[in-house]
Design brief:
By secondary structure, this protein is an alpha+beta fold. Helices cover about 30% and strands about 20% of the residues. It has 2 domains: about 190 residues, no CATH class; about 280 residues, no CATH class. The chain is built from 14 helices and 19 strands. The strands form 5 sheets. Strands 1, 4, 5, 6, 7, 8 and 9 form a 7-stranded mixed sheet that branches. A 6-stranded antiparallel sheet has the order 10-11-12-13-15-14. The protein has a two-stranded antiparallel ribbon with strand order 2-3. Helix 6 packs antiparallel against helix 11, helix 7 runs antiparallel to helix 8 and helix 7 crosses helix 11. It is globular, with a radius of gyration of 26 Å.
């Protein structure tokens, strides 16, 4: 990476140029403001999901935007962070067919659903009416029954929807049966109709979440739901959450064809290797569709339990909704010593046999989200050697753990408390570091800058790069020592590359830094 040429980097000059404004800029919470704006500007899902409307509203400065990755700037926050049901759905899809306990009735319903879905129909209504019964045999009542809804002064009728009883409310309260755990939309084929079925369902979900009867729910839940999109003989499942006034949607499965594959194109194993003994590709295909629908039904049941058992938060100072990563094991091999000097990690010392596993568990209490970093949070850690430790919890796609520990041992990085890939949050790395409280007028001392420069030289001599040496990735502690906090791009020299979407417009990078560059 470009940072490797230290002679081209003047840390003293860069520090003065970066200034304090780059670090201390903050984005105030706009949850209530965004919801109020949405209530004033929202349209019906069928109107709001048209291409002409999305062309105007799908922008980062529009409250109506659904963060679904279209355009690419409307992505980034992973819904797996906020609720386990989406990870559970993936696990269920990957399980062996033998362990799914599919019944003969499941196979029959899947067969009818596939047969009817592959037909041509004169209208969408005809398709809707014909495929509804076998689909509801899997997913339950109203999964594909059109019922009128009224949300945020707008009436709409999804092609199918299932409500969830919410334990926050009493049976006679308006919000008791308002939340939708499933929204379904049907088209007669891909590209037919005025809009994409997924995008129309996303708009219906957004309308539901901003309904005034759900104000209490919105303040303590990410409001998880599933979206089922059907376009002719294709079906897709997405997940949706609502966080900080923003609807977030991610496609969990692609549009899966319901047309059985030809034998020549099938990957179905032969009779001897087939775990269920299926002798045709078509039969295997029926089983896979049955598994998809049964997995969705099981997760919808799980959402029903989640909403029914919901209670009001007891700690007003806790972040809500918060990530679904509540704890970790302290004995995971990361550097736990605090003095900034080289030495064996505290976690590498064996724990006494008498200490039970729960004594190694570090519990996290989330306090706030860091506005300028969408998947970073401030939390308090207790247990496993931590007592009220303020920390930063980051969810990232990769982390340079070795470089982080190298720099911490030289006193120029935040203490690394945990660094591990976690399947339950979408296979992201969870990186937890001790919180560094930088004051508004913090300034790095000359000795601190020199210490950082020497540490960087040592890092490069060890054939590592930091990769993102900017002011926003440093904090100044109370002694004037700058400490590095972001090692996402760190790794072995010559093996790391800058991302394809490197921001070369608003950021002054070192000479040689460019998209795809090494």
């Amino acid at each position: 990476m470009a940072e490797r040429a230290l002679e081209n980097i003047d840390l003293d000059k860069q520090w003065r140029q970066w200034g304090d404004n780059a670090r201390n800029a903050s984005i105030p919470s706009r949850r209530t403001e965004a919801v109020n704006n949405l209530r004033k500007s929202c349209k019906s899902p069928s109107a709001g999901a048209k291409n002409s409307a999305l062309f105007e509203t799908q922008a980062s400065n529009r409250d109506e935007a659904v963060h679904n990755g279209r355009p690419l700037s409307l992505g980034g926050t992973d819904l797996f962070l906020y609720h386990r049901v989406f990870h559970d759905f993936q696990l269920k899809l990957r399980r062996p067919l033998q362990s799914a306990n599919l019944t003969l009735d499941d196979f029959k319903a899947a067969t009818v659903f596939i047969e009817r879905s592959t037909r041509f129909y004169p209208t969408k209504t005809d398709r809707h009416y014909d495929i509804g019964p076998p689909l509801e045999a899997f997913l339950g009542e109203n999964a594909l029954t059109e019922l009128g809804r009224y949300s945020a002064t707008v009436s709409h009728s999804p092609d199918g929807s299932q409500t969830a009883v919410c334990g926050l409310y009493k049976p006679l309260d308006p919000g008791y049966r308002t939340m939708l755990k499933l929204i379904s939309e049907v088209r007669n084929g891909i590209g037919l109709g005025d809009c994409c079925p997924t995008e129309q369902a996303e708009k219906a979900y957004q309308l539901t979440c901003i309904d005034s009867t759900l104000d209490d729910l919105r303040h303590c839940s990410c409001m998880p739901a599933f979206i089922l999109a059907i376009a002719g003989p294709h079906v897709s499942v997405s997940g949706a959450i609502f966080v900080n006034g923003v609807a977030i949607s991610q496609r969990i499965t692609p549009f899966t064809s319901l047309v059985p594959p030809l034998a020549s194109l099938s990957t179905t194993p032969g009779f001897e290797a087939n775990e269920m003994g299926f002798v045709t590709a078509g039969t295997q295909h029926v089983a896979e569709i049955a598994l998809l629908l049964k997995s969705l039904r099981e997760c919808l049941d799980g959402l029903g339990t989640y909403y029914r058992d919901m209670r009001r938060p007891t700690r007003p100072d806790e972040l809500s909704p918060a990530p679904c990563f509540p704890s970790y094991e302290a004995n995971d091999g990361v550097t736990l010593h605090r003095d900034g000097q080289a030495g064996p990690p505290a976690s590498s010392r064996p724990l006494p046999d008498a200490r039970a596993k729960n004594e190694r568990t570090v519990k996290l209490r989330y306090l706030s989200r860091i506005p300028e970093r969408r998947m970073s949070f401030v939390a308090e850690a207790n247990g496993g050697g931590e007592t009220g430790t303020r920390c930063v919890v980051k969810f990232v796609h990769r982390s340079g753990k070795e470089a982080h520990e190298f720099m911490y041992e030289r006193g120029v990085a935040a203490r690394l408390m945990h660094c591990q890939r976690e399947a339950s949050v979408g296979d992201l790395f969870v990186v937890i570091t001790e919180y560094i409280d930088e004051t508004k007028d913090a300034k790095a001392s000359q000795d601190g800058i020199t210490k950082l420069r020497d540490a960087l030289e040592g890092l490069h001599e060890a054939q590592f790069v930091f990769g993102d040496l900017r002011r926003v990735n440093m904090l100044v502690d109370s002694t004037g020592q700058p400490r590095l906090i972001d090692f996402d791009w760190s790794g072995p020299d010559g093996q790391m590359r800058y991302p394809h979407d490197l921001n070369t417009t608003d950021v002054a990078w070192p000479e040689g830094a460019r998209p795809w560059g090494s």
